[in-house]
Design a protein that fits this description.
The protein is of the alpha+beta class and 117 residues long. It is built from 4 helices and 4 strands; from the N terminus they run E-H-E-E-E-H-H-H. The longest helix has 15 residues. The N and C termini lie far apart (26 Å). The model has no long low-confidence stretch (mean pLDDT 98). The protein binds iron/sulfur cluster and FE3-S4 cluster.
Amino acid sequence: MTYVVDEKCIKCKHMDCVEVCPVDCFYEGENMLVIHPDECIDCGVCEPECPAEAIFQDSALSEGEKEKWELLNYKYSNEWPNISEARPDDVPQDAKEWDGVPNKYNEHFSSKPGRGD
Ligand code: SF4
Ligand code: F3S
């Protein structure tokens, strides 16, 4: 099992999650973060830290969603740079406006890497 980040993170990217992860297994894209499934120790401490409620234990997702987000988290955690410290100045200014907006993956996902640490 692992925890995964889903589309609710896109364009919100609060970064509170990276501050609490004991194994620094978050990776940064241009407009969202992902968790490396092989590095996550399933501790769960990041889940309640996310203001956008974008983090889930994979077992809490339906079969289709589980596979989709596991694959995406796995793929991009191998392509994007590690991030272990939040950068409050880089949180999108309109993050609150994007909170809970539907269909963010199809319409707004960016495969470009973020800055990382
Ligand atoms: Fe890190 Fe724990 Fe969250 Fe996994 S569940 S990403 S180890 S804080
Ligand atoms: Fe994204 Fe939530 Fe972390 S919005 S960057 S998963 S705190």
